């Protein structure tokens, strides 16, 4: 192999190595900013940018193929981290090629002054980092107002942009410094090379230096692994999708059992000192509240049940709590919402958004809640404040709320953009929780069936049970009648007289007298509808 080919290959290899190591340094910078300051990382932002663009059916397929929402989140983060490494290595490769060409063409001659201080390779890396940064700002513009430590949208945008600049900058600086070290200035390297004997073995010095760069890479990789481990311990993998159900369901769900759904890989952990609630948009008097100012307003206590739109028939993505907070109607009254106001577009520190109709917001039951069952909201449920929207699916009850914007048009939130909805009003639902009917029942014995029924913000008037596949319905007892905004708990004493395979089902009647229909609908796009049906085997 000729000397030039060998030296080119060697240069390219050094470039790839340096680029990959610099990418590890960049990732480390991102993760450190995330852990220490709550600054959103590009892997998280890219996921949040893409998710709303994916039609809900495809999103469902992706989740199934990945083996669950948590697995899809893991896959997304992993892919972006891997892509960063590849792009970083390519950047290093191009850098080394430019450095080599500059060294060859300018070898020996005194370069222009500009080229001494800013050689072509340095200009390339500045342009590369600058272009990546601008592209990231443009492409990620809608999700830049994200800050997991609680900064309001405008400050969050600045924090995210600066964080990316620092991270990308750490890449560029690492490429220049590591390359200079590894090739001991490309110019000096190649000048020596031309003077060396044809066919001479590569200078052992370069090999040793490359090994040292590799060692920096291993150290950066280990530090990345340590920070990823910390983030993964705090990640939502362990609790996203937590359900509560079973025969011992309590009227009020304890906070540590309340169901959880989140789009995040690592949830927000808001510092109340940074946090603000902004009321903006079509209002006469825009306002900003800090946590103290919000709690100084006269609070209301309101028991309310929440249910996720993706709760299957019979599922446990549904819980009930006693909430304390301030009615949104009061905040809007203070701000003076314009008469042509149509919706509220609400935003969270995690970049999540959703909208609610203005009539709903003004009905007095929509709260900015800061207590759950008598204690401050747990982090997972939206500390310091969340929106609480009775009667509509849980996605409207935005956690870590930071901005309410009064809009005069139709605004679509995170999930609505995927194609969920457009109707988010909770239909009447009920489920059978107990007993476990997988084990056969002996004819003639008494069994107590129990469960819950929920009719959004219409209340539950009556619950009925059928044990003959819907031919006859008998009233159940409401062991906890609940209120207009909550679920009810029911029980039904059943004594099957003869053996056979039976079909049990439950139906509720809402406070307006409307009976839950048996007409089934899939979860996508407006939430499951129909009756929860359970098979039972009665033996002699
Ligand atoms: N900021 C923010 N709010 C959010 C979400 C989210 O991912 N981010 N998920 C929503 C969804 S889909 C549901 S069902 C409820 C769940 O609230 P919980 O976890 O307190 O039960 O929160 C909603 N609010
Ligand atoms: Mo949800």
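^ structure tokens above, recovered residues below v
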């Amino acid at each position: 192999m000729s000397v030039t080919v060998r030296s080119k290959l060697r240069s390219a290899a050094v470039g790839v190595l340096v680029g990959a190591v610099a990418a590890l340094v960049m990732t480390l910078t991102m993760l450190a900013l995330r852990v220490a300051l709550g600054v959103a990382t590009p892997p998280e932002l890219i996921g949040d940018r893409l998710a709303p663009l994916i039609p809900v059916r495809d999103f469902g397929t992706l989740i199934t193929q990945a083996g669950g929402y948590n697995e899809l989140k893991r896959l997304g983060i992993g892919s972006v981290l891997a892509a960063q490494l590849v792009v970083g290595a390519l950047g290093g490769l191009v850098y080394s090629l430019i450095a080599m060409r500059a060294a060859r063409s300018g070898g020996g001659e005194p370069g222009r002054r500009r080229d001494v201080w800013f050689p072509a390779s340095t200009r390339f890396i500045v342009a590369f980092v600058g272009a990546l940064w601008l592209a990231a700002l443009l492409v990620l513009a809608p999700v830049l107002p994200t800050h997991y430590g609680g900064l309001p949208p405008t400050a969050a945008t600045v924090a995210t942009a600066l964080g990316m600049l620092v991270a990308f900058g750490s890449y560029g600086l690492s490429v220049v410094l590591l390359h200079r070290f590894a090739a001991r200035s490309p110019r000096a390297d190649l000048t020596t090379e031309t003077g060396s004997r044809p066919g001479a073995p590569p200078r052992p010095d370069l090999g040793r230096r490359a090994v040292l760069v590799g060692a920096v890479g291993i150290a950066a990789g280990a530090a990345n692994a340590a920070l990823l481990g910390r983030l993964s311990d705090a990640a939502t993998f362990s609790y996203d999708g937590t359900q509560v159900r079973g025969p011992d369901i309590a009227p009020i769900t304890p906070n540590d059992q309340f169901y959880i759904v989140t789009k995040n890989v690592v949830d927000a952990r808001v510092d109340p000192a940074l946090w603000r609630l902004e009321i903006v948009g079509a209002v006469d008097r825009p306002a900003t509240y800090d946590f103290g100012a919000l709690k100084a307003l006269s609070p209301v206590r309101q028991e309310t049940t929440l249910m996720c739109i993706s709760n299957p028939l019979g599922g446990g993505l549904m819980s009930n709590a006693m909430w304390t907070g301030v009615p949104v109607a009061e905040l809007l009254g203070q701000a003076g919402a314009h008469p042509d106001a149509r919706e509220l577009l609400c935003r969270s520190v995690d970049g999540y958004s959703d909208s609610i109709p203005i009539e709903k917001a003004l009905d007095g039951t929509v709260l900015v809640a800061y207590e759950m069952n008598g204690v401050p909201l747990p982090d997972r449920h939206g500390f310091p404040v969340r929106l609480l929207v009775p009667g509509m699916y849980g996605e409207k009850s935005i956690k870590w709320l930071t901005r309410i914007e009064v809009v005069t048009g139709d605004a679509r939130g995170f999930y609505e953009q995927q194609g969920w909805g457009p109707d988010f009003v909770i239909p009447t639902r009920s489920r059978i929780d107990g007993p476990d009917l997988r084990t056969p029942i002996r004819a003639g014995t008494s069994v107590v069936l129990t469960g819950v029924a929920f009719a959004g913000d219409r209340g539950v008037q009556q619950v009925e049970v059928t044990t003959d596949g819907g031919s006859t319905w008998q009233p159940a007892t409401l062991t906890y009648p609940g209120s207009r905004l909550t679920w009810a708990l029911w029980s039904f004493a059943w004594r099957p007289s003869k053996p056979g395979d039976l079909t049990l089902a439950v139906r509720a009647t809402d406070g307006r007298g409307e009976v839950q229909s048996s007409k089934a609908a899939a979860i996508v796009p407006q939430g499951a509808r129909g009756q929860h049906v359970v098979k039972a085997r009665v033996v002699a």
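Residues 258-264, 306, 308, 348, 350, 352, 381, 394-395, 397-400 surround MTE (ligand 1) (CB under 6 Å).
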